[in-house]
Amino acid sequence: MSKILFQHINKFVSMEDQVLEEVISYFTHRDVEKKELLMRSGDTILHDYFVLSGCLQMYFIDKDGTEHTVQFALQGWWLADYLALQAKKPTEFFIQAVKKTAILSISATKRVELFETFPKLESYFRTVYQIAYGSYQTRMKYILSYSKEEIYFKFRDEFPEFVNSIPQYLIANYLGLSPEYISKLRRKHIS
Amino acid sequence: MSKILFQHINKFVSMEDQVLEEVISYFTHRDVEKKELLMRSGDTILHDYFVLSGCLQMYFIDKDGTEHTVQFALQGWWLADYLALQAKKPTEFFIQAVKKTAILSISATKRVELFETFPKLESYFRTVYQIAYGSYQTRMKYILSYSKEEIYFKFRDEFPEFVNSIPQYLIANYLGLSPEYISKLRRKHIS
């Protein structure tokens, strides 16, 4: 399963298999059950998570107790609260498994050691975070230029793996739509 | 002026002044006039910009011809279309100076050379992009949990340097409010 991380690293930097085996020793492999929480609001010991299979969801709970999805991570994606991870501050987010999910997890402390031992990984993570940052710029463009209905259809057409692997009520939550509204959109589109 | 970049780099990685002088030689210093465009939708030769003084605005124009602000960059901030920069694809965004602005600019090609020559800068940019990525996660939390009115006041309280240095009509555009509505909010708040 760690081959998925090897392949992802080698997409951006070139590292020998033997070195990658050492890299992997810094991570903990975890199998997470559906709905199991990896991170809770208030947590101070934070991790960066790499998805080997399944799907993670990052969300927060607003002052009225409503859950809002900020981000998903499918196979080959990294997920963490990156400001809190950097500033070593308590997080205000939750991360949970949407379904049975396998991950590699690294603590903030181990991650510092990892960078010191394998400086080449700075380049890998620089690229990963640059792409993630750029994706948010593009996401803002979507939010500002399309109606929620248009965003749903664009999302479905451009990221079919999301729509196929994430329950409809969570996609609705992510897009700020009610599940009923998405059902209506789907029916409208099929007919 | 390049001292501002030296200081910013040394916040995250330690580099000698002599090395930093060499680093600077990869950049072009530019003084940009108010409203001058640094990047246009369709451009393929892209740059990463570091603000020495003044302010940059990144925006796009939607299908109805309306301008939408995606992001600002004040002194000590980096700005680019990071997906297009990475994928070497044409950008769909514009970057312009909000006021008279001094920047350091580096082309995508020079940037690759920079990383090859000074691998330590991978660590600097990994941190910069990680923080920028994390800021977008937090921004999504704001968008999803507060009304536009609440966001305006939070924005004003948490980032007073923005409200003081960016014209009101651009802050309105960034927050998706009309300038008239912001004037009304300000009056309401003062009275």
TrEMBL record, chains A, B:
UniProt-listed Gene3D superfamilies: Jelly Rolls
Record field: transmembrane: none
Listed CDD domains: CAP_ED (cd00038)
Domain of life: Bacteria
Residue intervals of the Cyclic nucleotide-binding domain: 11-107
Name by which UniProt lists this protein: Crp/Fnr family transcriptional regulator
UniProt lineage: Bacteria, Pseudomonadati, Bacteroidota, Sphingobacteriia, Sphingobacteriales
